[in-house]
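Training component of the fellowship. As part of building independent skills, the fellow (R.M.) carried out the full modelling exercise for a liganded target. The chosen ligand was glutamine. The inputs are recorded below so that the supervisory panel can assess the work.
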Amino acid sequence: MRELNIKIVWMYHDIMDLYGDKGNMMVLKRRCEERGIGITIDTCGIGETCDLSTYDLIFLGGGADREQMMLIDDLLSRKENIQKAMDTGSFFFLVCGGYQLFGQYYIAADGSKIKGLQFFDYYTDTGKDGMRCIGNIVIECNLDGNKIIAVGFENHGGQTYNVKHPLGKVIKGYGNSFNEKMEGFYNGQVFGTYLHGPLLPKNPKIADFMIVKALQKQHPDYRLQDLEPLNDQLEEKARRILFKRWGLSDTN
Ligand code: GLN
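Fellow's submitted model of the complex:
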């Protein structure tokens, strides 16, 4: 059996951790450990030296406008290094405030414009009259041909438009904006979503998908079928209860 290791970096861990985003890291750790896959999770805060391209998975969670303003200069100063990470096959997992900052710009609730990294065409405007998309959300995503129903929680004022490659269709909730019924961004390497909750404990299939994407940086031939299955009965039961509560058919 070959030895497998994943290196993760959680950017701005101390300020970008809304609605339990940290739980995403805990789930990846646990699901790797249970399979004997080595996992290292480092953090990278404002002003810290860090070569992001040496990581298999880069995680940036959600944050309030204030935190997004605090980190933006630091994030923009890392643009070249982030590009290098993209070019060398790192996988990106971005939640809400983090997702917004990879686009063209974000207009905060007070009207100030925060320049984004501009890797993608999407941009985020503020909600009309301070309105926010808040509540439980269910989406149907297409991850490299795998249809997965994701469950989460959203709370954002930002309305993200011009998303060329949405992560999925909204079944319940809002997603990128009030009316478009599309959620997130996914281009095969960058996974941006409004789903907090945190995302991965409620969606173990997505956690495994990300583990595989991270492994593929070192082992391009590694496939989802190569991953040892885990017992997800409890997670599946929790999902069934949620679907029932929301009047949705069993979409596991
Ligand atoms: N501050 C951003 C907004 O309100 C992002 C919020 C978040 O990360 N949940 O749209």
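The panel noted the following from the submitted structure. The two ends are 31 Å apart (CA to CA). The mean pLDDT is 96.
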